[in-house]
Design a protein that fits this description.
By secondary structure, this protein is mainly alpha-helical. It has one domain. It is 83% helix and 0% strand. It is built from 5 helices and no strands. The termini are far apart. 13% of the residues are buried.
Length: 144
């Protein structure tokens, strides 16, 4: 069987075209994966932000007075747990998008200084509870 030079050249062109198609496909897969990862991070952050907004609404409905401290404490506990979860996701690099982290830095500082230190009991502030939140606050505070 005789292979003409034309057939050999055509075969090489086909291999080059196939390799180019594979390269484009790989590039598209990587870009799609990165977009999907970012979308997952945005969704996770959005879920926590919705939870915090709901808690703040409920806390605003609680009348002032010491007789409502138990109700207020239960909502504070829920808020601090949401902040702890958010802090865990950032500290463990589950949320890595720099723009998202930069966006929430002022919020972390505000929640820590204006909410956690004021509403948190002495036991919560001094104990091993909410370590991720405390760690994130210290990290963010150093960067600001």
């Amino acid at each position: 069987m005789f292979i003409s030079p034309f057939m050999a050249i055509a075969s090489e062109y086909i291999q080059i075209i196939v390799a180019a198609i594979y390269a484009v496909t790989l590039f598209y897969t990587i870009v799609t994966f990165q977009r999907s990862k970012r979308l997952d991070q945005i969704t996770s952050l959005g879920d926590v932000m919705n939870e915090l907004r709901d808690v703040e609404r409920e806390m605003a409905k609680i009348p002032a007075g010491s007789q409502f401290d138990d109700v207020r404490n239960s909502w504070s506990f829920r808020m601090f747990n949401s902040l702890e979860w958010l802090s865990f996701m950032i500290n463990e690099r589950i949320i890595t998008d720099k723009k998202l982290i930069e966006y929430i830095k002022p919020m972390i500082i505000s929640y820590y200084e204006n909410t956690f230190l004021k509403l948190g009991s002495g036991k919560e502030k001094d104990s091993s509870q909410y370590q991720q939140f405390k760690k994130l606050y210290q990290t963010v505070k150093k960067q600001v």
